[in-house]
Design a protein that fits this description.
Blueprint lengths: L2 H17 L8 H12 L17 H13 L6 H16 L3 H8 L6 E4 L2 E4 L7 H5 L7 H29 L13 E4 L2 E4 L3 H26 L3 H6 L13 E5 L2 E5 L2 H4 L9 E3 L6 E3 L10 H28 L1
Helix pairs in contact: 2-8, 3-4, 4-8, 5-7, 5-8
């Protein structure tokens, strides 16, 4: 290759480098949040796409309003009605999100080096386990959801049996208050419907808070939106934990924030076409996929042709 050819080749490489910025892989933890937020029905998001009034949309919005602002959790008996609303709302979500909300190992019996013990999760770390469920098959997720619902049903019957006993009425149910019970191949200790329902409700708000945070990061007025979140505090996942390492006191970040700490904000974006969230691996990316890129190109071409057609008519009429 002579000097002239070498210069041409280097020039082509330089142009190609400018046209194709370096690809930055999506952070693993952020990818989990993006996947979760994109599964959320758009009419429940912070900045929803204009919808066509799909069946069940208004009902779901009303259910969310009830679960958010009129949730009675003073005692188990009062919560049975609220639990019905939560059940309806969660059933309208995709299967992966249903599993995230319902699956709970708190109160289950586990084997340890000291023998069998009851798993206690006072800090509600369940979201760490449940967010990994998204990679499971449809059959596995369905089984998890069915077992979780069966457990809620057992706890509900236990609540009703206790209420009847307290009022001196005859108990026809075989479910008694404060016992251990079996659901599938897993044994549980009764935790109370209030505890179980409130934890499920917090995980629902965790999903909404994830979308709320991504909406803030992907759009303008990021800090203002982060300061004005509606679901973050309700998620129960913003408590940090102290621990000691190498003779130093250190801090575990809150569960919800641990997924986004250190993330480059300018790379978190919302697709111009489908409005799903995505990580801009290249700095010039404005859409989330090749399909949306093709739609974007066709829309631009259509706009250009329409503009040209109007101009030609104007010239002709003049």
């Amino acid at each position: 290759m002579n000097g002239k050819d070498s210069k041409k080749a280097s020039k082509r490489k330089s142009v190609k480098a400018k046209r194709s910025p370096a690809l930055l892989p999506v952070p693993e933890k952020l990818a989990l949040l993006v996947n979760m937020a994109n599964l959320l029905p758009k009419f429940l998001r912070c900045s929803p796409i204009s919808s066509n009034g799909e069946p069940g949309e208004e009902l779901s919005k009303h259910q969310l309003f009830v679960v958010k602002d009129y949730w009675s959790s003073q005692n188990d008996e009062d919560l049975v009605g609220g639990m019905y609303r939560l059940w309806q709302l969660v059933d309208s979500l995709p299967l992966e999100l249903q599993a995230f909300v319902w699956h709970d190992t708190h109160g289950s019996f586990i084997e340890t080096s000291y023998g069998t013990s009851i798993l206690d999760d006072p800090l509600h770390l369940q979201p760490f386990e449940n967010i990994a469920l998204f990679g499971q098959t449809e059959g596995e997720l369905n089984a998890l959801v069915e077992r979780a619902k069966e457990r809620i049903d057992v706890e509900t019957k236990g609540t009703q049996a206790y209420d009847r006993a307290r009022l001196g009425r005859e108990i026809s149910s075989t479910i008694q208050w404060g016992i251990d019970y079996q659901v599938g191949n897993q044994k549980f200790h009764e935790t109370g419907l209030t505890e179980l329902a409130n934890r499920a409700r917090q995980r629902l708000f965790f999903i909404l808070a994830v979308e709320e945070i991504l909406d803030a990061l992907a759009g303008p007025d990021t800090q203002e939106k982060l300061n004005d979140t509606r679901y973050v505090e309700r998620s129960g996942a913003i408590r940090g934990r102290l621990f000691v390492k190498n003779d130093e006191v250190q801090l575990y970040p809150p569960i919800l924030y641990s997924f986004v700490i250190g993330i480059q904000v300018s790379r978190v974006r919302k697709c111009e076409i489908c409005e799903n969230y995505f990580w801009a691996g290249r700095s010039d990316m404005q859409v989330c996929s090749t399909q949306c890129r093709d739609v974007r190109r066709k829309r631009r071409q259509r706009g250009w042709y329409e503009k040209e057609g109007k101009w030609r008519r104007y010239e002709r009429d003049r």
